[in-house]
Amino acid sequence: MSDPAAQAAANPPGSDAASYHRTRRLIALSGYAFDAALLLALLFAGWSTSIRSLAETLRPEPPLALLIYALVLGLLFKAASLPFDYLGGFWLEHRYGLSKLTWTGWLKDEAKGSLVGAVLGLLVLECFYSVARAWPEQWWLIAGVIFAGFFILMANLAPVVIVPIFFKIAPLANPALEDRLRRLMERGGAGVKGVYEWKLGEKTKKANAALVGLGNTRRVLLADTLLQSFSEDEIEAVLAHELGHHVHGDIWSLLAIQTSATFLGLYAVNLALTRWSRTFGFRGPSDFANLPLVALITLAVSLLLLPVVNSFSRWLERRADLYALQAIPDPSVFASSLERLAALNLAERQPHPWVEFIFHSHPSIERRIRFVQNVAARTKPEPASAAR
């Protein structure tokens, strides 16, 4: 593990990055704990079955009763989570000078996010309980297969349906850079439908780049903050990392991990419902009053798997870093691009080892830069005099 003195030097107690990330984790964990407490109250106080009975009184048809029940719970949880959303999404980002959103702009994004989440959530719930009604014994297997297809569909549609709801996207107005990046994509075998400027700067000072979508929706997104602050060599280096994920099929690996976790979670839910349905007054897997128990089991499985999934993700990120170093003319440029990203995004350079192990999907920026510098040093050509 890392040397405590070196860690303290990298993130002194008063440093903005250490304080920012520590506060963000505290807010997120507090929100999860509050949600879990509310779910337990819905179960043990009998509120969930009472809301289900009310919904069935208003509309006895299962899909419509579920719609009423889900809307009531959705409003309840949104009201409960709003303080945490405000603290993490508005107050914290402004406190550390990262956000450009006004209060009105933040509320508008919250409303859009809630609407999109409600539509997708209702589709998932209606599908989930329809399967449970039709196949009360094998429901979890069939639901897992359907959800796997849903994950692939969303990976394909998100760049053209979801992202434009929240951000303006425009064709890149730099033909020379676009041509350079298209050649990079072609060398990696990634045909793209376009290279776009992602208007991130209207909302934040952070920078990012992404290669998103599948097949005919695959496209390059470059944040305007990236275009303004980075050289073309550095932009190519950042995108080469994203290309590394494509070359190694990482999106399919992550979809496989997500699908496996979903099957495991659904199996755990099936066991829990079999054991505790009578305890809480549920009528079986198709009784949507069991949703708080389903959510609690899913949350528990997700938290247990988090370190494993993040460890795998960090390995994928390291492999993509290595690909980027091999794909660009000057590997040292990648180190400078990481430094710039760390500064703009207020990255936690060297978190505590346990924090990195549990919460970080990427290696710490300090580890990444050190790795990149070591590889660049090994690949640096020898001077002519030394060669002789």
Structure description:
The chain is mostly helical. It folds into 2 domains: 298 residues, no CATH class; 74 residues, 2-Layer Sandwich (Zincin-like). It contains 15 helices and 4 strands. It has a 4-stranded mixed sheet. Helix 11 runs parallel beside helix 14. The longest helix is centred in the last third of the chain and has 37 residues.
Please describe the topology of this protein.
Layout: H1 4-10, H2 16-44, H3 47-58, H4 62-95, H5 103-134, H6 139-166, E1 169-171, H7 175-187, E2 195-198, E3 209-212, E4 219-223, H8 224-229, H9 232-247, H10 250-276, H11 291-327, H12 332-345, H13 353-359, H14 365-379, H15 384-387
Parallel strand pairs: 2-4
Antiparallel strand pairs: 1-2, 3-4
Helix pairs in contact: 2-4, 2-11, 3-4, 4-5, 5-6, 6-10, 7-9, 9-11, 9-12, 10-11, 11-14, 12-14
Features:
388 residues, mainly alpha, Zincin-like, 15 helices, elongated, disordered N terminus, disordered C terminus
